[in-house]
Amino acid sequence: MQSLTANRLDDGAVVYRTKLETWSRNVHDAAVFENDASAALEEAGSDVIRALVVGVELIDVTMTDTGTTPVSLREKIRAFGPTI
Amino acid sequence: MYQYDQIDRNFVDERVAQFRDQIARRLSGELTEEEFRPLRLTNGLYLQLHAYMLRIAIPYGTLNSRQLETLAEIARKYDRGYGHFTTRQNLQLNWIRLDQAGDALADLADADMHALQTSGNCIRNVTADHWAGVAPDEVADPRVYAELIRQWSSLHPEFSYLPRKFKIAVTGSPADRAATRVHDIGLVLKRDDAGQIGFEVIVGGGLGRTPMIGKTIRDFLPEAQLLPYLEAILRVYNLAGRRDNMYKARIKILVHEIGTEEMSRRVEAEFAKNIDSVLANVQDEVARIASYFTKLPYGPSDPNPESYALRRKSDPAFRRWVISNTFPHKIAGYCIAEISLKPTGGIPGDATSAQMIAVAALARQYSHDELRVTHTQNLVLPHVKMSDLPAIYDVLAAQKLDAPNVNKVGDIIACPGLDYCALANARSIPVAQRISERFADVDRAHDLGEVKIKISGCINACGHHHVGHIGLLGVDKNGEEFYQITLGGSEAADATIGTLLGPAISSDQIVDTVEKILTAYADLRQGNERFLDTYRRLGAKPFKERAYAAA
Ligand code: SF4
């Protein structure tokens, strides 16, 4: 399972692509792509051109009770903030 | 303190105006990220994991009170009310917005500061001994030359696209508190037999993926020839440095590949063409810069005033702080007071805006309006009267800045690591926090004496782990954080790259392992040996056995 993440251009904040093709600050809102996410990745690229976000990337996620949750420590830290 | 003249000021103001315009064009979509990124980085603005990060240059680690207050205000206004002092004597703000970065830089420029030369393949912010101008063992003040190099190298057109970044450090004393031997160029001030000032020139040191100790290519370079000689080194490097491979592009690889002798020969040949250049004629500028740094009005001061002696007798906490955090000054009755930014369980190098403002006030009242940032991520009040120590200590204690641990086990260097840094493999800060908690007992820490623990979250080695007495390098093993341990490193005059002890240790085990190593030291030391001395005498074996022994 994968989701799309990026950083918002104006403040650098971490955002996730939602089902509505908007960007949410909350990882739990992230749309999940079960199989091929390349179409979604390309779609999201238009927001790079529109200077809304930068660094669009696919990340591995799982579904938990609270919603979409990243797998790697790096992406957990991006999603939930520094651990300190 | 050096103060900007009109040329410096116009230059920085123009850059701020340019960058504001570039930001506006980026936000409007006129510039793409590919076009904008190098412009952003030239101005010290990175995009990290959570936000933009602004890296502010603190040239040779010297600040006045107003500048520190400005940094505190910028952190408050545009960030989250704190900043992170780095191993390059810079300040990083972790939560900057792109659309406010221009305003932050304009505020910075108002206090004679900028964020240039903190990124990119240029000559970076020059670092210097944090005891410059006050150390008893000093030959001459390294900041004069560091400032000269700053002016010469700022946006130098010929050296703005070097094969890789380029770091220069200057120390004024043989003890080398600027880690000159692990810089691209290290300069050690010295005098020749005739008493003339000059430099030992060291090239090709560095950490990162391929750590190397620099090689001396000139034992004595007369002061006046400094810039032409640096220019010669940079020219040789600019032409011959490996642009084909980013990992081989630093000057250390060039020096390693062609050898010290050949490097020296090429530099001298280039220098010979250069010797009459206008850069050899900077005596007036050196004198002008020097006039900013010398002749502080030190009044008479009692080396052992009653107020200080009484407090020292009656207050053990004060006494311990004085023993570990104050150092002899060149003028009798004064001392150098180091402010540890490493409270137990704290984030190494972090200071809140309130703390910065309190320290700035201390500097104004008690230290001739001057402060230093150390490459060990602490602050220094460089000109303190012994009689003022009790009052200073009380303010520091109220601000939780009184950790009595300079050069002790708790005085850990840690890079931002995976908590902030986009390049990291593992976290650094939480490991530092856990180690400092484990050794929170001040008696124990003082008994262990000088121990320099340095932690990096990836091979880029911003935490200088290779030259830690104990170095920890975070690695990612199948998604888990592990730490490689190196022992026996040093960044001082006896610079040494540490040796890998054995297999990497899990995050769960790493604090126990560090404790085992230090317990082994406590058992094995002889007389007044520091950890590093015992390690050098016995080698890795006994430490390895203890570190990897089953619990
Ligand atoms: S050492 Fe690596 S993780 Fe640490 S700050 Fe440098 S680049 Fe980031």
Give the class-level CATH name of the largest domain in chain B.
Alpha Beta
Q: Using DSSP, what is the number of strands of chain A? A: 5
Bound molecules: iron/sulfur cluster
Integer-rounded radius of gyration of chain B: 23 Å
Name the chain pair whose interface involves the most residues. A-B, 23 and 26 residues
Largest sheet of chain A: 5 strands, antiparallel
Structural class of chain A: alpha+beta
The fraction of residues in strands of chain A falls at 25-35%
Helix content of chain A: 10-25%
Poorly predicted segments of chain A: none
Tell me the domain tally of chain A.
1
Q: Looking at the structure, what is the overall shape of chain B?
A: globular
Described by the principal axes of the CA atoms, the overall outline of chain A is globular
Pattern of helices and strands of chain A: EEEHEEH
At CATH's second level, what is the architecture of the largest domain in chain B? 2-Layer Sandwich
Structural domain count of chain B: 4
Number of helices of chain A: 2
Strand order of the largest sheet of chain A: 3-2-1-4-5
Characterization of this structure:
- By secondary structure, chain A is of the alpha+beta class.
- Chain A has one domain.
- Chain A has helices at 38-49, 73-80, and strands at 2-8, 14-17, 23-24, 53-64, 67-70.
- Chain B has four domains: 6-110, Sulfite Reductase Hemoprotein, domain 2 (Alpha-Beta Complex); 127-293, 2-Layer Sandwich (Sulfite Reductase Hemoprotein, domain 1); 305-398, Sulfite Reductase Hemoprotein, domain 2, CATH 3.90.480; 413-547, Sulfite Reductase Hemoprotein, domain 1 (2-Layer Sandwich), CATH 3.30.413.
- Chain B is globular and about 60 Å long.
- In chain B, helix 5 (142-153) packs across helix 9.
- The structure holds iron/sulfur cluster.
- Iron/sulfur cluster is lined by residues 415-417, 421, 423-424, 456-458, 460-463 of chain B.
